[in-house]
Amino acid sequence: MGEYARLEVTDGVGTLRLDRPKMNALDAQMQEEIVEAAREADRREDVAAVVVYGGERVFAAGADIKEMAEMGYREMLAHGHLLQDFTRALAAIGKPTVSAVTGFALGGGCEVALATDVRFCADNAKLGQPEILLGIIPGAGGTQRLARLVGPAKAKELIYTGRFVDAEEALRIGLVDAVHPADRVYEEAVAWARQFVGGPALALRVAKDVVDRGLETDLQTGLEIERAGFTGLFATEDQKAGMASFIENGPGKATFSGR
């Protein structure tokens, strides 16, 4: 269990908890611990879905600027890989993932949220990529994931200005998927994640992989990726159980083993 990032599992739902008071600044140690927690969540069979949560007051205010301020090109050449490793590890969790955003999700914190499948935010949340105000650009996936999520024009506007986005605007532009009262956002995220407990784990993993890989290529190649994923699931026990249950009992009543 990490000092600043850890995986907590309750009834099949994993919470990847960010916990570096006061603002969850993402220093190198925390980034490394996020990598390990994400990999643990991916491999554990008792985790069906994952909530990423920074606590009641703040999600993550960004990378640790004090740590980076004195770095030169040589140091950042090495450290830059870690900056992307921790968001890549989050995105690579082969299970449904949701961010429960409270307070600030800025810079690297916003990039953490962008690395999950969906984002729920509190009605008091503020999100943004303010790196331009430091004379740099997002470096943990923000330029790429934000553009894919809200479109290139809106992503450029947010990155160029570094301005903060409130919950209402974030929902309107598709940066988040739901807004909840601040004291309910974590519970709502857990409820969303809980629906996948006991679900067809292999089909969920393949669905996520096919969508993500398809976004990186042209339509025809994406269709081939889908075909391969679809046919591969006919080698699973869950496919047999799901279709047999449908024939016998109708939809939505199958019991899956995750195999």
Automatic annotation (TrEMBL):
<dbReference type="GO" id="GO:0004300">
    <property type="term" value="F:enoyl-CoA hydratase activity"/>
</dbReference>
<dbReference type="InterPro" id="IPR014748">
    <property type="entry name" value="Enoyl-CoA_hydra_C"/>
</dbReference>
<comment type="similarity">
    <text>Belongs to the enoyl-CoA hydratase/isomerase family.</text>
</comment>
<keyword id="KW-0413">Isomerase</keyword>
<dbReference type="InterPro" id="IPR018376">
    <property type="entry name" value="Enoyl-CoA_hyd/isom_CS"/>
</dbReference>
<dbReference type="GO" id="GO:0006635">
    <property type="term" value="P:fatty acid beta-oxidation"/>
</dbReference>
<protein>
    <recommendedName>
        <fullName>enoyl-CoA hydratase</fullName>
        <ecNumber>4.2.1.17</ecNumber>
    </recommendedName>
</protein>
<dbReference type="InterPro" id="IPR029045">
    <property type="entry name" value="ClpP/crotonase-like_dom_sf"/>
</dbReference>
<keyword id="KW-0443">Lipid metabolism</keyword>
<dbReference type="GO" id="GO:0016853">
    <property type="term" value="F:isomerase activity"/>
</dbReference>
<dbReference type="InterPro" id="IPR001753">
    <property type="entry name" value="Enoyl-CoA_hydra/iso"/>
</dbReference>
<keyword id="KW-0456">Lyase</keyword>
<dbReference type="Pfam" id="PF00378">
    <property type="entry name" value="ECH_1"/>
</dbReference>
